[in-house]
Amino acid sequence: AGRGGASEHAPAFRPASTKLLLPCASRDEWTSALASAERSLRALSFAPPSVQAPSFERLERALASRADALAAALVEDLGWSAAEAADEVSAALRAFSVGWSGGADHLASSVPLGVRRPGLLVAAPPSDAPLLPLCRALGAALWAGNAVIAAVPPAAPRAYLAFVEALEESGLHAGSVQVLFGRSTALAEALEAPPAYLRYED
């Protein structure tokens, strides 16, 4: 499927055979998620990665324990082969492990993910690779002290249910990672007048 280990996702045409499609999050839901992320960022500013490392490790274990369930969900949700699904999950787990342990600079990217600049990251994985780009961004973002909102494709609800269960088991700080379905215009509307903590200034 064009994978290079955990290094980078290579686009591949892999049409999904969607069986269940969930509605996208509303503007109010996005607004609520942004407010929760703001509260989380304030708390995370007092908790360096060394303090949060146990929860990162728990998330890594929780995801690994659900590897088979995640792969089965991708088969069910998207109609992939078992081999394609297992490849996606395996690469995603490796990418998360490298990212949260501070090794993001070893992953090919145009963005210097190893730089610690706490803020909010909105991750929007594509439907042809619903886990690898998300886990790659998530590991690096958590290590850098970021809060993460994942705008995930609504075509893979079972896979993301297993993902959210792992998040809940890990004990990450409330609001530090949130999962919403869809990249609809609702997100753009919620960001029309972004709060100050979302604005980047040199």
Describe the structure.
The protein is mainly α. Helices cover 49% and strands 7% of the residues. The protein is built from seven helices and three strands; from the N terminus they run ααααβαβαβα. It has a three-stranded parallel β-sheet, sandwiched between helices. Helix 5 links the parallel strand 1 and strand 2. Helix 4 packs parallel to helix 5. The N and C termini lie far apart (39 Å).
Characteristics:
202 residues; disordered N terminus; mainly alpha; 3-stranded parallel sheet; 7 helices; globular
How does the SSE layout of this entry go?
Blueprint: H1 27-44, H2 49-65, H3 67-78, H4 82-100, E1 120-123, H5 132-143, E2 147-152, H6 157-170, E3 177-181, H7 185-190
Helix pairs in contact: 2-4, 2-6, 3-4, 3-6, 4-5
